[in-house]
Structures are given as C-alpha cells and as structure tokens.
Amino acid sequence: DLQLSGHTHGGQIWPFHHLVRLDQPAVAGLSRHGARTLLYTSRGTGFWGPPFRVFAPSEITLLVLRSPRRPASS
After folding, report:
1. Which of 15, 29, 33, 41 is the most buried (most CB within 10 A)?
2. Ranges of each domain in the chain
3. Measured CA distances, 28 to 1, 6, 69 (Å)
4. Which of 42, 58, 60 is nearest to 6 (CA)?
C-alpha cells in the first residue's frame, strides 16, 4: 500500500523540526509503516507562520508508479 501525504513543511525552521518529530514522526520523504505500507510525505511549497524556511527546502514531487514485474507464465 502507498499513502501520499503532505505537507509538513519539513519542519520549516531548524532546529524546531526536532519538536515537530515528537508529534509527526514522518516529517518528509519516504518511510515504512508496518509490513505493507509506504508513506510519502511532501515538504510542500509554502510555509506556516513566518514567511521563511530554514534547512527545509520547498519541493514539488513527481512520482512514477509502476506495477511489479511478474514472471512470464508457461
């Protein structure tokens, strides 16, 4: 399973992203949850509160989904 989520701003202002991780363990990027679930969290393009970001660059994500290859049946 794949869950696409966003956006947490990647924590927006370093070093406060450490506090954000206490409440939201998946701040940015791809992470695994359980045996079958992948979670992708985008940093997004904007901000919350003050209009700046420190060590949390904006992102626009492009995902390409492909089905797994299956062996040819004989």
Report:
1. 41
2. 1-63
3. 18, 8, 28
4. 42
